[in-house]
Amino acid sequence: MTMHDVDVKPIPIRKNPGRLETRLPLEEMNRSGTLMKFMYPNGVPGYMTTTADHFRRILSDPRFHAKRFLGEPQPTPVSVAVPDMPGFIPSMNGPDHLAVRRLAAGDFSVKHIRDLGAKIEQVVDKYLDETEAMGSPVDLFASYCLPIPSEVIAWILGVPTTHTQEFQMAARYTIGGLPEKLTDPEAPARAIKTLHELLADVITLKRKDPQDDLITRLTKATDPVLSDEEIWGLCTNLLLAGHETTSTNAAYQIAILLDRPDVKAEFLADPDRIPDFIEELLRFKAILTDSGAGIPRLATEDVEFDGVLIEKGEWVMPCAAAANVDASVCPHSPTELDLDRTPFPHLTFGFGAHTCLGQHLARAELKVIVPKIFERFPNLASEMAVDDLPWLESGFGYRMAELPVRWK
Amino acid sequence: MSDVGAMRILLDVDKCIAVGQCLLAAPKVFDLDDSGIVVLLDSMPPESERPAVMNAITRCPADVISLAQD
Lengths: 408, 70
Ligand code: HEM
Ligand code: SF4
Hints:
The structure holds two protein chains of two kinds. By secondary structure, chain A is α+β, with helices and mostly antiparallel strands. Chain A contains 17 helices and twelve strands. Chain B has a single domain (9-67), classed as Alpha-Beta Plaits, CATH 3.30.70.20. Helices cover 21% and strands 17% of the residues of chain B. Chain B is globular, with a radius of gyration of 11 Å. The relative contact order of chain B is 0.32. The structure holds protoporphyrin IX containing FE and iron/sulfur cluster (SF4).
């Protein structure tokens, strides 16, 4: 923080908005049309972008570096404890980033993910059965939304089924997961350590007994060759990036539909359009950046940006939530949820070289997770009034701490 | 005028981050290889593909695709 930052306004995050409302004053941000400098709760200032154009330009500009969770203070609404890991691509830049990212990209490409449909259905069915067996009422977040993405990632990586449960348990306590971790501040660090040990075993196993899976492919990579530590970092990265994000979005989308019977009826009426409806839900609720967290970038030199001087060492926080309601890209009532909207390329998955690697997987999971719960339980209803739901903050945004539902 | 071949596509493949928006936007023009990297199916597509190609250019997050200026 520099001397002239003493006057910087605190970031205006609304703590307990209703389920459909945004945390950030997105319309006001759009109207300003310029970068807005805010002081984050941890005392680090950052420039937030307020339009789609800013968002794309900052994230395409190599003078701004991606650096995440690396000890050094960066603007964040909640602090996240993730150790520095080699092979962790969100903190790499330039050709090194691209080379490592490409080693995993094939497994997440839109073509490869298309072949995964049956596997995803199988995992979703398994957790539908388990949820049903637990009986009504149940916390749908813990029984359904949370375990599915980590099981799918375990499968893509090639974690043997004997280790899957331990992998999923550790996943629950990393950055996100269950409220218990809040009462035990050491839990995330322990979970990362468990993952480290577990994945180290799996990597050794794959070197001895290669299979058709991502970890095996990473052990055979030549350009660049990856050490075991780098493979561990990359796999942990995939889990952290793909597990809580997807489960939170699934829970949120289900909650919105529970809350709005009119929207739910429209959503379920036309199965062919569900992929488009999911896009609109992703546009409407860009949870990661609406929380004020998201996609931090560090200026590596002084940059003059639309009349604002961003000094070397200052942070910019591209905000997808604001970009998605920018009338220049989403002209008709952008702050409204409208399933009939012609889908437009929203920016919830980021932009530039770090654009979400797992976006096609996330879509493939959401388009099964969300409709299937209503197919299995046509009478599904929320147990609590919307505004009474307890909220949980995390490094990946926010969500209801539980989603208690009944179907009887 | 039908103008077949008036559009010539250039790729800066070194920058491709394998997100596949190009394939989704213009499947007759772009494909992906096994590692998810863009490959060109048709470097001089017919004019009828122009809207799809322009859509791919807008959606590509890594500025890989452009049209030759000639
Ligand atoms: C709805 C769910 C998801 C959302 C909203 C989301 C959002 C994002 C965003 C905004 C970024 C860009 C971060 C940056 O530029 O610094 C990102 C990066 C990333 N995401 Fe996702 N993501 C989701 C699901 C997934 C899934 C399922 C996976 C994979 C298993 C995944 C893997 C990654 C990886 C590896 C990166 C880092 C890419 C890089 O730095 O090159 N994500 N995600
Ligand atoms: S959209 Fe761009 S970055 Fe993505 S695969 Fe196509 S060319 Fe590569």
